[in-house]
From TrEMBL:
InterPro entries: Metal_Hydrolase, TatD-like, UCP005295. Keywords: Hydrolase, Metal-binding. This is TatD family hydrolase. It comes from Phytohabitans flavus. It comes from the Bacteria. SUPFAM superfamilies: Metallo-dependent hydrolases. The keyword Cell membrane does not apply. It holds the Pfam family TatD_DNase. One of its GO terms (molecular function) is hydrolase activity, acting on ester bonds.
Length: 283
């Protein structure tokens, strides 16, 4: 089984996690830029963080046979801090880097006017740099936040097929389904979404434009929950090809729109270890 986790914050995870992920078949990941828990007090802190997302972290992942790409943005929470606003001027430089496959995470935290402005500015950057966009939806007031998100996406003029709206649940899945955007779900141990609930959503809404991630970070989270969801899909009667579609081909198709997704290493390795049959219907 090959798994691509399209949203995981490896900066906050240990090498033990990389080892366990590789053993579970998670050999490709995308790490979106987000906040650091402790608020950043200057733009320099972003520069160092972005450099590590395109330099150090891909190197660390490669030692465990995991291919690492990143998305770069000013996150919604820190969009509210005037000390961080200058980051917007830094972004174009990072959005041209090889390992950067989208603008993200952008979107809403508390739905303030500052967040409106920064969200719209970053969707414009995605269009300008011909990159897809990864959009975070707020954890409070989720339905209203998702509706407002979709309105801003529509207004921006970006092709909805190049936008993924993340952290969805049973309340918001239908809204996004009709928008033409991609749908992503963060599987957590206690909150947000669980593997059994995810399987029910896939049964009801189908597999097209669906992404499943662990969003693992410093909070209570589990970097193996993509694999657990894949196993739950099989147990519920989905085929291995269905699992491959949701947990590999879908994220490859979405981030592949950047023209920068390079999976040659991991795909060559899989072909060597498992025979070419594993790549059937592949990217
Ligand atoms: Zn995240």
């Amino acid at each position: 089984m090959r798994i691509f986790d399209p949203h995981i914050h490896m900066t906050s995870r240990t090498t033990d996690d990389y080892e366990r992920m590789a053993a579970a078949g998670i050999t490709a990941i995308v790490e979106p830029a987000f906040w650091l828990g402790q608020p950043r007090s200057s733009v320099g802190s972003f520069t160092d963080y972005f450099d590590s997302l395109v330099g150090w972290e891909p190197f660390r992942a490669s030692q465990f046979g995991v291919r690492h790409h990143a998305t770069i943005a000013l996150n919604p929470k820190e969009a509210n801090d005037p000390r961080c606003r200058e980051v917007l001027a830094l972004l174009p430089r990072y959005l041209e880097k090889d390992g950067v496959v989208a603008v993200g995470e952008v979107g809403y935290d508390s739905m303030t006017p500052e967040e409106d402005e920064v969200f719209a500015a970053q969707l414009a950057l995605a269009i300008e740099h011909e990159l897809p966009a990864l959009v975070h939806t707020p954890h409070r007031d989720k339905a209203r936040g998702t509706e407002r998100t979709l309105a801003v996406v529509a207004e921006s003029g970006i092709d909805p097929g190049r936008v993924v709206v993340d952290h969805l649940n049973e309340v918001t899945v239908g809204l996004v389904r009709d928008s033409g955007c991609w749908l992503a779900f963060s599987i957590y141990p206690d909150t947000k979404m669980s593997p059994p609930r995810m399987v029910k959503i896939l049964q009801e809404y189908g597999l097209e434009r669906m992404l499943v991630n662990s969003a693992a970070d410093w909070g209570r989270s589990d970097p193996l929950l993509t694999r657990t969801t894949a196993d739950a899909m099989l147990a519920a009667g989905f085929s291995e090809d269905d699992v491959d579609l949701v947990l590999w081909r879908n994220p490859v198709e979405f981030y592949g729109q950047s023209g920068r997704l390079d999976l040659s290493d991991v795909e060559a390795k899989e072909a060597t270890f498992a025979g070419n049959s594993i790549l059937r219907g592949g990217s």
